[in-house]
Write a structure and sequence with these properties.
With 125 residues, the chain is mostly beta strands. A hairpin with a 6-residue loop joins β4 and β5. The protein is globular. It starts with a strand and ends with a strand. 34% of the residues are buried.
């Protein structure tokens, strides 16, 4: 199983980025796919997740209304569209795949078995 993130970079406050997570060795519809981030000195936190099958979604309060998660089954890829970016969004962003036991645990990092290598997002003027 391999998860490859792309799309990170440097952007000014208020700008947008779209992160991609392309999977091989698993089908994204059969797993919950989560986007997590970790800033220096902070714990890894869930940003947005999409559950397997029905595609139910989770968003952290800090990103609601600004970020959108989507899934493209044909490309076996999950996207994170990030708009109105803020300096506090600066972090390494990781995608992960797992089988959390229901939506209650979908934002829990320990519920995910497979992780990508991460992509840096820097929001700065």
């Amino acid at each position: 199983v391999q998860l490859v993130e792309s799309g990170g970079g440097l952007v000014q406050p208020g700008g947008s980025l779209r992160l991609s997570c392309t999977a091989s060795g698993l089908t994204v519809e059969d797993y919950a796919i989560g986007w997590f981030r970790q800033a220096p000195g902070k714990e890894r936190e869930a940003v947005s997740c999409v559950n397997k099958n029905d595609g139910s979604t989770y968003y952290a309060d800090s990103v609601k209304g600004r970020f959108t998660i989507s899934r493209d089954s044909a490309k076996n890829t999950v996207y994170l569209q990030m708009n109105s970016l803020k300096p506090e969004d600066t972090a390494v962003y990781y995608c992960a795949a797992g089988l959390p036991y229901g939506m209650k645990y979908i934002s829990t990092p320990n519920a995910y078995d497979y992780w990508g290598q991460g992509t840096q997002v820097t929001v700065s003027s």
